[in-house]
Amino acid sequence: ASTSTAHQDLTGRTVLVTAGGTREPIDPVRFLGNRSSGRQGVAIAAAAHRRGATVTLIGAHLTVPTPPGIDLIPVTTAEQMHTAVLAHAPSSDIIIMAAAVADYRPIHVLPTKAKKDGTGLTHIELTANPDILADIATNRRRAGQLIVGFAAETGDDTGSVIEHGIAKAQRKGADLLAINEVGTHTGFGDVPNTITLVTNTGQVLDSISGTKDDVANHILNTVVHLLSTDG
Ligand code: CTP
Ligand code: CA
Prior knowledge:
The chain is of the alpha/beta class. The chain is built from five helices and twelve strands. The strands form three sheets. It has an eight-stranded mixed sheet, sandwiched between helices. Strands 2-3 form a two-stranded antiparallel ribbon. Helix 4 links the parallel strand 9 and strand 10. Cytidine-5'-triphosphate binds next to helix 3, strand 9 and helix 4.
């Protein structure tokens, strides 16, 4: 199989993967979250490990277990993920940001549980979270480092999935962006995936449909290829 131990093309490489969905607290029992299962990021971490890499996984509320041999750093919020990524980015050859990170968090976290009486919570004021990917892509600390982002996109009035993805690839500064079409029935959870790889100049490389393992190995194949051609 393509995932056999004969294919150790990431031996000697350090790989950092983010996965899962961050949670932003509202009060002691409530949070703003998203539907990410963490499966795609965990599949990437597992595939990189099988291919010989030393893998660190920064996981936010993963719904699947971390395979043996992978160093898991659990986090909850985007700010915690940011701190963990900044700590590990300088020692990582390859960074793959598969996590669904909350763009905003509540400005005030209530110290006690909000009640539904007249004093209850009807509005939540939000403030922007740090953009972790943009931060590490613009402040690179390691020569030759390869950074891959993910973009969960839906088509809308202002553009198609691919159009949004190409614009994001050019904006975010990651070397590669894996564009993933999401809806309530695709992309998240235990369903096959279609992803399209785009470079930071907006060049569309290729698309792959398959299981999250197929997608993981396809992304790693492209990463290995780019690292070998970059020198
Ligand atoms: N990301 C990040 N930090 C954030 C938000 C996103 O590191 N605060 C990363 C994600 O892990 C993903 C990539 O950026 O790899 C793209 O995330 P996405 O939500 O698709 O892009 P945004 O730039 O947040 O744009 P928007 O949500 O407006 O589409
Ligand atoms: Ca976002």
